[in-house]
Amino acid sequence: MVKIIMLGPPGAGKGTYATRLAPKLGIPTISTGELLRAARDDPEIGETIRKYQDSGELVPDEIVIQILKKRLEQDDAKNGFILDGFPRTLAQAKALETITNIDVVINLDVPEEILIKRLSARRQCKKCGAIYNLLYLKPKVDGICDKCGGELYQRDDDKPEAIKERLRVYHEKTAPLIDYYKEKGIMITITTDRIDVPPEEQVEKIMQKLKEKNLI
User: What is the pTM for the complete model shown?
Assistant: First the structure.
C-alpha cells in the first residue's frame, strides 16, 4: 500500500508515468484533470470550471478539494493511489493532509524548453481522454485514438500562449511545494534532460527509487 503524489510542471509527464506506474503497483491513478473534465458538464459548477480551464488558470481550491474528496472515498483508493495534478498549491497540500496521508512525492524535473515542445505536440482523445504526443508517443493511426477510435485534438491550453501562462502559474503557485515536501523528507526527484526519453525508462527509474526507500 503506497500513496503517491506526482509533482511537476505541465508537460513533465505526470499523467503518462502515473498510468504506467498504477498497474505495476496495483493502485488507481487519480487525475484531478480528468475529474475536473468530467465535472465540466455539472450543472452547478461546470460553467465555473470551464471558465478557468479555458483561460489556462487553475480551478479554485474549494472546487478541486470537493471533487477529490469524493473520489478518495471510493473503494479502489483505500489501498493506495497515485495523485496526478493535485496538490497544486500549499493550501491544497495542507487540505489534502486533513483527508489522507501521503507516503512519497515524485517530483519530475524537466527543463522549460522541453516542456514547451512536448505540450505543443500533445494530442488528446475527444472520447476517452487518452493522451498522445506527436514527438514520442504517437497513435498508430494519425489523428485516431488507439484505445477507442476517437478523434484526437489539441487542447486550447496546449497552444503556445496558454502554455506560457500555465508555466507562469506553476512557478508562482506550485513550485513552492517542492521545498514543502523536501522538508518533510518524502520527495523523490526524477530528472529528464532530453525530449525523446521513453516513458518506460522514467517509470523504471521511479520504481527503483520506490524500492530503495522500501515503499514497495
Answer: 0.80
